[in-house]
């Protein structure tokens, strides 16, 4: 009976976490996320620094995947399967916004900034070009792959081309959650990059989660297996491109990959000084809806993971039902669940003594009614605003309009958050409010 009950609970957890896939109309599409509240029908223009389409530079999303390529004639998978491919493959994906292939820049800009849209606008993957395999991820016992540096050189050149046309020399990496196909992280990365005004370069990391509700446990192993490849990719980007800062956003089960990467870097850094870790160029690492045991992440932090990025931000929610179910199944608190009750003195002291660690409770977002359940980072206009402005301007929580909780050493959203954030952005870049390019 206990085994049967556990199976039912595990299936229910998997169904709840399937929200990681997002609300898409087709297997290679997503509906464009709501406009972040900070933009509010164009009052603040995220594209003021950059306008790639008017320059004839149609932005494509760079990707890295350790999924196995689909074979010719595969009826289920057009590009990559859900099986492990082990080595990391690099490439470029072209995406399209809207129904009309000839949509203009002004129309795309206008539609994306509308606060209340009457129509769902899909974004979709239009084409994919694989460059080849990142040689550093080929294992020595794999004799089926020829080592070649050409794919990574092409990949780095694409990153540098984007950085050269951007006022900010930042690379952003998105790592998806459970039960999505190859295309999903590309589409999420595309909309995040769109709302970043196409500044910097964006990389979608697509790890081999199975597109099945019942593969939850199998995906846990695949997530940890992919951490090595993500770690290798970060090192290669830091060493071989003109990037100044690298930011990583991990979502749901994808936070296991990101946090394990930080743990590995933390252990590596135990015998090295801060300068060696600065060479990794990791700026903001953001964990959203994190489905990792809170104690496991705590061990990573104690082992040195906090020395690696300049900031580690953890978004938590009291209303994340999927993580609540995950906690019930595993019997352990999840990192993405909000702290409740009184924290013990040692926990308070740890949070107070580590300013790089920023814990944000989203339960008061959207005026006290956070939108989106487990998928709030895309569905909540307040939370998406907070994440995007962290990535765009590298502002701390207080400088983004968040307030320190009176009873706990965490940050929360005040009722006037949006106004506070806009005022902060006006100070960070006065051209935003003026609607004119910065000097």
Q: Roughly what percent helix?
A: 25-40%
Main beta sheet: 12 strands, mixed
Query: N- to C-terminal separation?
Result: 69 Å
Whole-number average pLDDT?
A: 85
Query: How many DSSP-defined strands?
Result: 12
How many helices does DSSP assign? 15
Low-confidence stretches: 1-24
The class by helix and strand makeup works out as: alpha/beta
Order of helices and strands: HEEEHEHEHEHEHHEHEHHEHHHEEHH
Notes on the structure:
The chain has helices at residues 2-17, 105-113, 150-164, 183-195, 216-240, 254-268, 274-278, 294-302, 321-330, 345-353, 365-368, 376-379, 381-393, 417-428, 431-434; strands spanning 29-31, 60-69, 80-97, 122-133, 170-175, 201-206, 245-251, 282-288, 311-316, 357-361, 403-404, 411-412. It is α/β, with parallel strands linked by helices and 439 residues long. It has one domain (2-434). A twelve-stranded mixed β-sheet has the order 1-4-3-2-6-5-7-8-9-10-12-11, sandwiched between helices. Helix 13 (381-393) runs parallel beside helix 14 (417-428). The longest helix is centred in the middle third of the chain and has 25 residues, at 216-240. It is globular. Residues 1-24 have low confidence and may be disordered.
């Amino acid at each position: 009976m206990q085994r049967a009950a556990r199976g039912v609970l595990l299936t229910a957890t998997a169904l709840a976490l399937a929200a990681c896939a997002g609300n898409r109309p087709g297997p290679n599409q997503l509906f464009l996320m709501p406009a972040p509240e900070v933009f509010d029908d164009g009052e603040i223009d995220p594209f003021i620094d950059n306008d790639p389409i008017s320059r004839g530079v149609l932005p494509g999303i760079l990707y890295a995947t350790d999924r196995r390529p689909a074979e010719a004639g595969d009826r289920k998978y057009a590009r990559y399967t859900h099986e492990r491919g082990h080595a990391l493959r690099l490439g470029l994906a072209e995406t399209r916004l809207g129904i009309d292939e000839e949509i203009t820049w002004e129309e795309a800009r206008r539609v994306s900034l509308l606060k209340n849209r009457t129509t769902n606008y899909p974004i979709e993957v239009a084409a994919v070009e694989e460059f080849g395999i990142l040689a550093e991820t080929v294992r020595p016992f794999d004799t089926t792959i020829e080592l070649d540096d050409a794919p990574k050189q092409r990949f780095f050149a694409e990153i540098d081309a984007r950085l050269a046309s951007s006022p900010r020399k930042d690379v952003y990496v998105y790592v998806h959650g459970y039960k999505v196909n190859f295309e999903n992280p590309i589409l999420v990365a595309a909309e995040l990059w769109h709302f970043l005004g196409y500044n910097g370069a964006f990389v979608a990391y697509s790890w081999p989660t199975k597109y099945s509700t019942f593969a939850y446990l199998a995906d846990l192993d695949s997530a940890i297996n992919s951490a090595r490849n993500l770690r290798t990719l970060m090192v290669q980007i830091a060493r071989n491109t003109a990037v100044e800062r690298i930011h990583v956003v991990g979502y749901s089960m994808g936070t296991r990959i990101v946090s394990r990467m930080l743990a590995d870097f933390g252990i590596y850094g135990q015998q090295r000084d801060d300068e060696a870790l600065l060479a990794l160029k990791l700026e903001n690492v953001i964990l959203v809806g994190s489905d990792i045991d809170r104690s496991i992440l705590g061990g990573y932090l104690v082992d040195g993971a906090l020395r690696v990025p300049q900031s580690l931000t953890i978004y938590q929610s009291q209303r994340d039902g999927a993580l609540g179910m995950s906690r019930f199944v595993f019997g352990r608190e999840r990192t993405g669940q909000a702290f409740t009750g009184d924290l013990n003195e040692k926990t308070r002291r740890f949070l107070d003594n580590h300013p790089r660690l920023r814990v944000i409770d989203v339960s008061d977002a959207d005026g006290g009614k956070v939108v989106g359940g487990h998928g709030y980072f895309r569905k909540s206009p307040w939370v998406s605003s907070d994440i995007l402005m962290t990535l765009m301007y590298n502002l701390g929580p207080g400088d983004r309009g968040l307030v320190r909780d009176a009873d706990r050493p965490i940050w929360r959203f005040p009722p006037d958050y949006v106004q506070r954030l806009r005022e902060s952005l006006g100070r960070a870049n006065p051209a935003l409010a003026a609607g004119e390019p910065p000097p």
